[in-house]
TrEMBL record:
SUPFAM superfamilies: TPR-like. CDD domains: SusD. It holds the Pfam family SusD_RagB. Residues 90-218 form the SusD-like N-terminal domain. Residues 269-442 form the RagB/SusD domain. This is RagB/SusD family nutrient uptake outer membrane protein. It is found in: Cell outer membrane. Belongs to the SusD family.
Length: 472
């Protein structure tokens, strides 16, 4: 099933990574001492970080196991017998030995190591100084993103700010990890440009660093900084795409709403991405996994255009003219329309949907971050204004919420339907303290399932440096 992968044997950072090997070249390992010599080496090493963003671990099955299926908005998909092992993520019965828990952990550490290779070795290369500083800033921004994933899924993790000879540090606290992320993002934002030429689309920008920073402050409940930082992003000239369908089609990639987006164009060097394939319409475009739940369907208000532009149904004809086949009667009948690539645009050189970019951070979310922070600061006017901008695009009337409490609930709801199937629902429920109530019917246990376990082999190979998360 899996076609695009990063071998565990290449990198298990906590297990065996040394500073004399570098996971850059797809054809194998390269000794760092003989690699980091030229400007081209620096560029190639940084490109290896970006290639991970589209990888199996970061965007396909392991990612969906921890960010997707545990939420109430996503079900396993496909048919009941296909990859039934995924069900443990829906009913919270995964264990320390589960391969998905382990796969996402290993993948994120592979990515952290790639960033640290650049941050550690590129400063010594004789090359264009401006480019050098930018590549280091890009790497720090991306390191912050990977650490943000780790801390939200596993809680406190070891902090590695450079290549190490031995990787057996104890876990840092959640607060220490967040502070490390913030320092990386602030440093990156000071250097990164606001835009790139078309040949470099997909590289992280100043707006991406500040946008992610505002989201980090939101998770820390530092409302003032979340408000101020999201205001900086709002002032940069981003805009909502007026057409919600266009936003997620290839023609809408890197548009006015794009703050942080992964370039997944099919190429001879990196292949494509399986992000869209694993979720595509079963037996027509893809495998049919990670599909919208009935709970999500019922969450949309009457008249919300996002409902039918988020949920793709058997038997419908898309706005682009593709008839969605009725398919296997034992399989699910609805799919994630946000990953749909029209048949006429699909690049057959790679798997289905490989041209579908991954939207990690959109301007709509920046508006909702700003609205939530403003509301918590008592600024209900600004909160209402930015919430309503998102609602207006969805052809909905302005919110009827008028108090801080009702507006808070309205903003949380708007995040659910605006960002549906984009990987935010589960961690949002945890962040806002709703998980224990909303997910209890699925088996969620408060005090345990807010985070996932540290994988068993990582625990064993830490030689006692790690403590396990409660309840596992």
């Amino acid at each position: 099933m899996k076609k695009i992968f990063l071998s565990i044997a290449l990198f298990s950072l906590v297990v065996s990574c040394k500073d004399d090997y570098l996971d850059i070249k797809q054809e194998g390992q390269t000794e760092a001492s003989s690699f980091f010599k030229t400007q081209e080496d620096a560029m190639q090493a940084t490109s290896a970080i970006y290639s991970f963003l589209r990888s199996w671990e970061n965007s396909a099955f392991p990612y969906q196991f921890v960010f997707g299926v545990p939420a109430d908005d996503v079900v396993k998909g496909s048919n009941p017998g296909d990859s039934a092992f995924i069900n443990v993520y829906d009913n919270f019965t995964y264990t320390v030995s589960d391969e998905g828990v382990r796969g996402y952990w290993i993948g994120q550490w592979q990515a952290v190591n790639r960033t640290n290779q650049v941050i550690t070795h590129v400063p010594a290369i004789q090359m264009d100084t401006t480019l050098k500083n930018r590549l280091i800033a890009e790497s720090r921004m991306l390191r912050a993103y990977f650490y943000f994933n780790l801390v939200r899924i596993y809680g406190g993790v070891p902090i590695y700010d450079k290549v190490e000879a031995v990787y057996e540090k104890p876990r840092n606290s959640v607060e220490e990890v967040y502070n490390f992320i913030i320092s990386d993002l602030i440093a990156a934002a000071e250097v990164l440009p606001q835009t790139y030429p078309s040949s470099d689309l997909g590289r992280v920008t100043k707006g991406a660093a500040l946008g992610l920073l505002s989201k980090v402050y939101l998770y820390k409940k530092d409302w003032q900084k979340a408000y101020e930082t999201s205001n900086q992003v709002i002032a940069m000239g981003y805009n909502l795409d007026p057409d919600f369908n266009h936003l997620f089609r290839p023609a809408g990639e890197f548009g006015s709403e794009s703050v942080f987006e992964v370039n997944c164009q099919c190429s001879s060097q990196y292949g494509g991405s399986q992000y869209a394939q694993v979720q595509g319409v079963r037996n027509q475009f893809g495998w049919g996994f990670f599909t919208p739940s009935n709970a999500l369907e019922n969450a949309f208000e009457a008249g919300d255009i996002r409902k039918e532009l988020t949920i793709l149904r058997n038997g419908e004809t898309t706005p682009e003219g593709d008839l969605i086949a009725m398919g296997d009667p034992l399989s699910v009948t609805t799919f994630n329309q946000k990953v749909y690539v029209p048949k006429a645009l699909n690049n057959s050189a790679c798997d289905y949907g490989s041209i579908q970019n991954i939207r990690i951070l959109r301007f709509a979310e920046i508006l909702l971050i700003n609205a939530e922070a403003a509301n918590e600061l008592g600024n209900t006017s600004t909160a209402t204004t930015n919430l309503n901008k998102v609602r207006t695009r969805a052809t909905l009337p302005g919110t009827t919420a008028t108090t801080q409490a009702t507006l808070r609930t309205a903003i949380w709801h708007e995040r659910r339907v605006e960002l549906a199937l984009e990987g935010d629902r589960f961690v949002d429920l945890v962040r806002t303290g709703q998980a224990a109530t909303v997910l209890a019917p699925y088996g969620f246990k408060a005090g345990k399932n807010e985070v996932f376990p540290i994988p068993l082999d990582a625990m064993d190979q830490s030689h006692g440096a790690f403590t396990q998360n409660p309840g596992y």
